[in-house]
């Protein structure tokens, strides 16, 4: 795959703003984008049931934002439907980007200190570290995705994400069964661009749960594997056992990556990535 030569990045952002507290969370993310991503295009999906004031905030922002409201029949009880809408906008614009950053209004519907801390974590360790993370992609041309936290599917479910993704797109390789926790990750633009070109059009116009047969965690758990399915590596900062029935140690991750690498042409070990 030819990597994009452009320097411009984009953000794909899913939002649900049902009340004044959530509205302030939305505003806080716009401030983060103004500080760290002011030179980027931003694509925002607005889930049905959001306040009209959220649209007003987007319109008056100095950022270059494209946004779309999700139809009621496509909205589900997670960020997934907002990501569908934002990605459809990106596909329609047909612009090329170096990297595309994913995020959502984390904690907008759960008023707990844990969610507030988690949101702060992603702002400080992910979005605010844009320069550091970008330099990592520049140094490692086979790096396709980065997210802070990963886990691994239970052994009885290995291969399930590949099978699920085949419903909407065919890509040449199998994934390693690694997945990101939380929908805050960045993909190399060429990888996302290939997905948008090859995926079935129904992906953008059908309910992701009731019609496409995925679940509410599709973008958190499934989507980023389009990286490995195109022969690129997924990097991370921290490992978690989560649902895995095997302790998610570095050795276990490396074992899965070695197996995954065997299908790649002219494969070269990249274990330096794995912590």
CATH architecture tag: Alpha-Beta Complex
Separation of the first and last Cα atoms:
27 Å
Shape: globular
- Along the chain, the helix and strand elements come as EHEHEHEHHEHEEHHEH
- The total strand number stands at 8
**Any idea of the CATH class?**
Alpha Beta
**Rg for CA atoms:** 18 Å
User: How many structural domains does the protein architecture include?
Assistant: 1
Question: For the record, what is the CATH homologous superfamily label?
Answer: Spore Coat Polysaccharide Biosynthesis Protein SpsA, Chain A
The biggest sheet, with number of strands, parallel, antiparallel or mixed sense and barrel status, is: 8 strands, mixed
- Multimer state: single chain
Q: Overall pLDDT, averaged?
A: 90
3D architecture notes:
Strands 1, 2, 3, 4, 5, 6, 7 and 8 form an 8-stranded mixed sheet that branches. The longest helix has 17 residues, at 20-36. α1 packs parallel to α2 (52-60). This protein has one domain (10-273): Alpha-Beta Complex (Spore Coat Polysaccharide Biosynthesis Protein SpsA, Chain A). It is built from 9 helices and 8 strands. It is an alpha/beta fold. The mean pLDDT is 90.
């Amino acid at each position: 795959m030819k990597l994009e030569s452009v320097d411009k990045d984009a953000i794909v952002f899913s939002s649900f703003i049902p009340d004044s507290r959530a509205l302030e969370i939305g505003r806080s993310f716009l401030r983060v984008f103004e500080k760290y991503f002011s030179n980027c295009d931003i694509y925002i999906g607005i889930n049905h049931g959001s306040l009209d004031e959220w649209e007003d905030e987007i319109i008056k922002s100095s950022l270059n934002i494209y946004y779309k409201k999700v139809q009621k029949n496509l909205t589900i009880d997670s960020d997934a439907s907002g990501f569908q809408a934002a990605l459809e906008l990106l596909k329609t614009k047909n612009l090329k980007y170096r990297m595309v950053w994913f995020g959502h209004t984390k904690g907008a519907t759960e008023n707990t200190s844990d969610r507030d801390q988690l949101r702060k974590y992603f702002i400080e360790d992910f979005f605010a570290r844009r320069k550091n993370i970008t330099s990592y992609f520049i140094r490692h041309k086979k790096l396709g995705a980065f997210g802070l936290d990963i886990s691994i599917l239970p052994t009885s479910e290995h291969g399930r994400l590949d099978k699920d993704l085949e419903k909407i797109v065919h890509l040449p390789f199998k994934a390693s069964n690694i997945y990101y926790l939380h929908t805050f990750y960045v993909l190399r633009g060429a990888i996302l661009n290939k997905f948008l070109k090859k995926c079935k059009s129904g992906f953008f116009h059908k309910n992701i749960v009731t019609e496409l047969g995925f679940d509410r965690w599709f973008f958190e758990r499934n989507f980023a594997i389009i990286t490995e399915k195109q022969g690129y590596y997924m990097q991370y900062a921290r490992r978690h056992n989560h649902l895995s029935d095997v302790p998610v140690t570095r050795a276990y991750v490396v074992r899965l990556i070695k197996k995954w690498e065997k299908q790649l042409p002219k494969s070269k070990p990249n274990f330096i990535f794995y912590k």
